[in-house]
Design a protein that fits this description.
The protein is α+β, with helices and mostly antiparallel strands and 252 residues long. It folds into two domains: 3-196, Bira Bifunctional Protein, Domain 2 (BirA Bifunctional Protein, domain 2); 204-251, SH3 type barrels (Roll), CATH 2.30.30. Helices cover 23% and strands 36% of the residues. It has helices spanning 18-28, 77-94, 154-158, 164-179, 188-196, and strands spanning 3-4, 9-15, 36-42, 61-73, 100-103, 107-110, 113-125, 128-138, 204-209, 214-222, 228-231, 237-240, 245-251. The longest helix is centred in the middle third of the chain and has 18 residues, at 77-94. Residues 1-7 have low confidence and may be disordered.
């Protein structure tokens, strides 16, 4: 059963995924800009490239929002991702979460462990993005991650219990502000800010290619198309799309 709160958030007890739920709603009605759907439990939550997002019901935030765009060039899609990641980063700073970093392409870490995942699904018309559905999963009060040894939560990091609605309010405040007048031209600076907080940037590390072969390199940044730039020991720079490289295999 769903209800609309004073925050104009649509709350669900359960759904397969909040991104999928917004898509279904969109087929039935014209949704207002910044429609938000939050679920207490997702039965088929998804991360990047179809990976499953596992979260204990009632202890974390899983929500999606619809953002309508005007003439946003599809080729600059990653600057939109960067803006969203930075918004959540700032919200977590407001909540005094320590040791934050942005891990390319769409994760937020604390102390090198995954705290938040983001899934952005864009609707493209011609060469422009007309709207985005932005899915966010944030580990809040969950304290055990049996199948996710690299995960952490806000409670694990601070020892505090959090009211989910209060955390959601902080996140939405930043997202609504940063996405209110989103403009592709103004987003070029966002990519630089994103790189400033990029996990392992300018640090030697070990990586693995898609075929499993290891190599050493140094992350130098992200190009406007969203490819990760890694400098090799010989000085050459390779660019990788999502799922073409795994890291960190090791720190050097």
């Amino acid at each position: 059963m769903l209800k609309r709160t004073e925050m104009q958030v649509i709350k669900l007890n359960a759904t397969d995924s909040t991104n999928a739920h917004i898509k279904r709603m969109s087929r039935l009605e014209i949704l207002p800009d910044f429609t938000v759907v939050q679920a207490n439990r997702q039965t088929a939550g998804r991360g990047q490239m179809g990976a499953l997002w596992e979260a204990e019901a009632g202890k974390n935030l899983t929500f999606s929002l619809l953002k309508r765009l005007e003439a946003f060039p599809a080729r600059q899609h990653f600057t939109l991702n960067a803006t969203i990641s930075l918004s959540i980063y700032k919200a977590l700073q407001d909540l005094n979460i320590p040791e934050l970093n942005l891990k390319w392409p769409n994760d937020i870490l604390s102390g090198g462990r995954k705290l938040c995942g983001i899934l952005v699904e864009n609707q493209v018309q011609g060469t422009y993005i007309s709207q985005s559905i932005i899915g966010i999963g944030l580990n809040v009060n969950q304290t055990t991650f049996a199948n996710l040894p690299g995960a952490t939560s806000m409670k694990q990091l601070t020892g505090q219990d959090y009211e989910l609605d209060q955390v959601l309010s902080v996140l939405l405040k930043h997202l609504e502000s940063d996405l209110a007048n989103v403009d592709a031209g103004a987003l070029n600076s966002k990519l630089k800010q994103y790189e400033d907080f990029l996990y392992l940037k300018d640090m030697p590390a070990g990586f693995r290619r898609k075929d499993g072969s290891p190599f050493e390199g140094i992350i130098r940044g992200v190009n406007p198309e969203g490819l990760l730039r890694i400098e090799r020991p010989d000085g050459s720079v390779e660019s990788f799309a999502n799922k073409e490289v795994q890291y960190p295999a090791t720190r050097i």
